[in-house]
Design a protein that fits this description.
CATH class of the largest domain: Alpha Beta
CATH architecture of the largest domain: 2-Layer Sandwich
Number of domains: 2
Low-confidence stretches: 1-21, 23-30
Strand content: 15-25%
Distance between the termini: 48 Å
Order of helices and strands: HHEHEHEHEHEHEHEHHEEEEEEEHHHEEH
CATH topology of the largest domain: Dihydrodipicolinate Reductase, domain 2
Radius of gyration: 21 Å
Helix content: 25-40%
Mean pLDDT: 93
Structural class: alpha/beta
């Protein structure tokens, strides 16, 4: 294992990394100084899989001192504390909390990372910006659309930088594909985009109800969501299989590809969203999210379609989770692993873009438990962009408002499936146009004593 000091890079070391070099060149106007910067004080709320992964990527690219960790699972919290003490330069263990409010009460954090489940994102992010911290929050930003509106309002009111973990915008091979294909006009007129996910990622078990273990505060884990009977640790995939805590495969996976499409093509809110689907095949488990779903996002002179199946085989085995941008002159296929431009003219030159890995620059990646190796360089770039935005006090590449548009669009797809009709959302009025029944679904019920945040 690398020594803790190896995780702090000087400018020369950063430039040895292809993707980090790309980040520095694009962020040069911000004047980001990775060498002479005073260590920023960092806290993490939600010390599970991706919370720890995000934190490790931040430690790798900037001088930080992780001073606070929060999680309702004591085993998870202790494990994260051990990891941080090994990774950060000081070797210190952070302060540990089971209640995020106690962590934020200290008011001594420059940055708060939020890796909690979706149903907690709004309360955690809003409380963090109210404490004076800049925030990196995982996607999707919210469980319902009204929460998202409140999050954007809070970030603006308190003048905080909020970066959303939609790191495809910082993925090196996708940045190059956008530049060399989209911006170069190789596709010609673009009329349609297909998005898909065919991963078998929908948990579908029937575990028995059991006593809550002493090391887990299940009441606090549930928070504002409905309290389900405890049937085992909810971490890592199990909670995502219930609509009480998230928005299924659309909220988890479509949000990435839709956000990438919007970034590549300069799209804002869709004019109308429709969707159909349900539980068609995997009927034998407790899961209540769809195993099959299609959605259509309508824009001016462009449609974007989504399809997921958590069973069967992908339509294109090389692109099981991907986007396909169709133009009159060809198609751009893109995933987290690679991208390729296939021209309609057989005499024209195809282009291919491969994922950047940084195993040599960051050997600790190879041994890190559960790391997504293909996503690590993108997350490092995303962190660099976040830090540069903090220094400049300007919006980051995945600003909270853009995260809200992508998240809300996906939530609208689920609401359209539930209501059985197309929905058109007016972001200025914060209402679904001409649909009183659907408007009642914009706000989920909060469990007492938790209070919904409101957009002010």
């Amino acid at each position: 294992m690398s020594t803790p000091q190896s995780f702090h890079l000087n400018r020369r070391q950063v430039l040895q990394s292809a993707s980090a070099s790309l980040a520095l060149s694009s962020l040069g106007a911000y004047g980001l100084d990775l060498v002479n910067q005073k260590p920023r004080r960092v806290g993490l709320i939600g010390a599970g899989w991706y919370g720890k992964s995000d934190l490790c990527r931040l430690i790798q690219v900037a001088p930080v001192e992780v001073v606070s960790l929060c999680d309702v699972d004591k085993h998870m919290l202790d494990g994260a504390a051990d990891l941080v003490s090994q990774r950060q330069k000081s070797g210190k263990k952070p302060r540990l909390y089971s209640d995020y409010r106690e962590l934020l009460k200290e008011k001594d954090l420059d940055i708060v990372l939020i890796g909690s489940p979706d149903h907690w994102h709004a309360l955690h992010m809003i409380a963090a910006v109210e404490s004076g911290a800049d925030v990196y929050v995982q996607k999707p930003i919210s469980r319902d659309i009204a929460e998202g509106e409140a999050m954007v309002a809070a970030a603006r009111k308190h003048e905080r930088v909020v970066q959303v973990g939609t790191q495809r915008k910082s993925t090196p091979h996708l940045i190059e594909a956008k530049k060399q294909v989209i911006q170069a006009g190789l596709l010609g007129q673009i009329g349609h985009v297909d998005l898909c996910c065919y991963f078998h990622m929908r948990a579908n078990a029937n575990p028995p109800v059991e006593p809550v273990p002493d090391f887990l505060d299940y009441e606090m884990w549930t928070g504002p969501a409905p309290l389900r009977p405890y049937d085992g640790l909810p971490h890592r995939r199990w909670w995502r299989t219930f609509t009480e805590y998230g928005n299924g495969i659309v909220g988890d996976m479509c949000v990435h590809m839709l956000d990438t499409t919007r970034w590549m093509l300069g799209l804002d809110w869709p004019k109308r969203v429709s969707s159909a689907g349900g539980i068609f095949v995997q009927k034998d488990g407790k899961s209540n999210i769809s195993d099959t779903q299609t959605a259509l996002f309508e824009y001016d002179d462009l449609t974007v379609s989504w399809e997921h199946r958590t069973w069967g085989e992908p339509s294109d085995p090389d692109y099981p989770w991907a986007l396909f941008i169709h133009g009159e002159k060809g198609v751009l296929k893109a995933s987290t692993l690679h991208a390729e431009f296939i021209p309609s003219d057989k005499k024209a030159k195809p282009l291919r873009f491969e994922c950047v890995y940084e195993r040599e620059q960051f050997p600790e990646d190879v041994t890190e438990k559960d790391i997504e190796l293909n996503a690590a360089p993108a997350t490092r770039l995303h962190m660099l962009n976040f830090l540069a935005a903090i220094d400049k006090r300007c919006p980051p590449v995945a600003d909270i408002e853009q995260g809200h548009i992508s998240t809300a669009s996906c939530i609208l797809a689920n609401l359209a499936m539930k209501t059985g009709r197309p929905l058109a959302y007016d972001p200025k009025a914060r209402q679904i146009t001409g649909d009183e029944a659907a408007n009642k679904l914009l706000r989920s019920e909060y469990r007492r004593p938790w209070t919904r945040p409101e957009a002010v």
